[in-house]
Amino acid sequence: xxxxxxxxxxxxxxxxxxxxxxxxxxxxxxxxxxxxxxxxxxxxxxxxxxxxxxxxxxxxxxxxxxxxxxxxxxxxxxxxxxxxxxxxxxxxxxxxxxxxxxxxxxxxxxxxxxxxxxxxxxxxxxxxxxxxxxxxxxxxxxxxxxxxx
Length: 149
What we know:
Blueprint: E1 6-10, H1 17-26, E2 30-34, H2 37-45, E3 52-56, E4 58-59, E5 62-63, H3 64-72, E6 79-83, H4 89-98, E7 102-104, H5 110-136
Parallel strand pairs: 1-2, 1-3, 3-6, 6-7
Antiparallel strand pairs: 4-5
């Protein structure tokens, strides 16, 4: 299910996302890079945003919460996965409760990462399909935040 999937990697200097890029490419996930919320906003405002965003916790012009807000405004559903250097259960709970799809830390073991990518992709594709079906049926569409799963 990862073939044809695209992901935006939001990283700042010294983040573990460089290692993540290689691991995603091994899973046939097409990756693009950005280093700021401003750059991410341009990508998400485009007609075909990526299915997934992997974001560092801190960026030069914002943080993971800002990335969630940008994803909510995208023209199609996008799942955000927060990448941290260290495992932190309290932070994990905060991230999930705020609306991120998942929270991961290195090392990026291929089986575990493949599972996260597969689940996140399945979720976002179901949401995109639901929106497309509602539009085809002429039904008013709900805000993206109302159909998140």
